[in-house]
């Protein structure tokens, strides 16, 4: 048997028996990063001996919510980078059974007792097709609770960046809630504080002028919904809901894989957005950018934010042409890279770099940074 044949046979045996066969097979995967990645992903589900060495798992087989359950969301996000679609379906089903996720999702009482969190939100969305009908109401309530908490927190952080600063030069005669200067109102009425009853009597409300606004900007958010993009899709849905609530912004929300779905009508409700996206499949960024181009009526008052891993499924040339045409027309373009493990940008560096040279800045932005970037242009600032 040739050396190549022997090595291939060793690789197959290593993948079959797992890392505990290293001593006998001579660690045949050490020099092959791709096969090592497959080995790690398979071990996460099928290697019971490895399972016993993962802290926090052994006592939580069943419907527990330890590291195995929450880590499964990150594990699922990377499957499509390595395995074909048929294998992914089998891996997801087996993971649900072996890690206790299936039992959790099937029990409405267990779901109702779960504390909402971003990690649990991602997990539920990944496994939503496996949630029995009887448990769907509890799963939806959990998603809604997590989304609403995150949306409220984001709104407090993002709206000031989007709507502009209060003008310190004078008070406003337009007495509406958005112009209320709460800090000045409290300070001016401290003399009316009743310490015994712990009540502050408001004798006079203070309102401030806001900086002048121009015509509305159209902000088009393009969201890649390939399988590895879940965390970015969740973030985009929340940010889009905040953007849609700002009067100065005419929001368009588009989700895409090899097709484009206009989700603008759902943009104000991130829960509906998240339950409507179909994660998985290929990616044709050029098609999404082309559709966005049809929504541009005033190029110099249009922003396009593309949230993607920039792994274009087709030839990149047509994508580069689309982006160049939009930039040359005066459209502001921004690329937002998806985040991998550890929060590092996870994207095709070649495609991202080429887009950046064409006038589409590429970055890994927090929601606050994105809002500041959009708000700067909405308020007429320089790029």
What would CATH call the homologous superfamily of the largest domain? von Willebrand factor, type A domain
Range of strand content: 5-15%
Q: Under CATH, the topology of the largest domain is which?
A: Rossmann fold
CATH architecture of the largest domain: 3-Layer(aba) Sandwich
Radius of gyration, in angstroms, nearest whole number: 25 Å
Strand count, sense and barrel status of the largest sheet are:
6 strands, mixed
Arithmetic mean of pLDDT: 75
Counted by DSSP, the helix tally is 17
**How many structural domains does the protein architecture include?**
3
Estimated helix fraction: 40-55%
| Secondary-structure-derived class | alpha/beta
As laid out across the biggest beta sheet, the strand order is 7-6-5-8-9-10
CATH class of the largest domain: Alpha Beta
Please identify the oligomeric state. single chain
| SSE string | HHHHHHHHHHEHEEEEHEEHHEHEHEH
In whole angstroms, how far apart are the ends?
63 Å
The counted number of beta strands is 10
Describe the overall structure.
With 383 residues, this protein is of the alpha/beta class. The protein folds into 3 domains: 3-106, no CATH class; 166-210, no CATH class; 217-378, von Willebrand factor, type A domain (Rossmann fold). Helix content is 49%, strand content 12%. The protein is built from 17 helices and 10 strands. The chain has helices at 3-17, 22-25, 33-46, 48-52, 67-77, 85-98, 101-106, 108-113, 118-126, 136-163, 182-188, 230-244, 270-276, 285-294, 316-329, 349-357, 367-378; strands at residues 166-171, 193-194, 199-200, 208-210, 217-224, 249-256, 260-262, 302-308, 332-337, 362-363. The strands form 3 sheets. A 6-stranded mixed sheet has the order 7-6-5-8-9-10, with helices on both faces. A two-stranded antiparallel ribbon has the order 1-4. A two-stranded antiparallel sheet has the order 2-3. Helix 3 (33-46) runs parallel beside helix 6, helix 5 packs across helix 9 (118-126) and helix 10 crosses helix 17. The longest helix has 28 residues, at 136-163. The radius of gyration is 25 Å and the shape is globular. Residues 50-70 and 165-174 have low confidence and may be disordered.
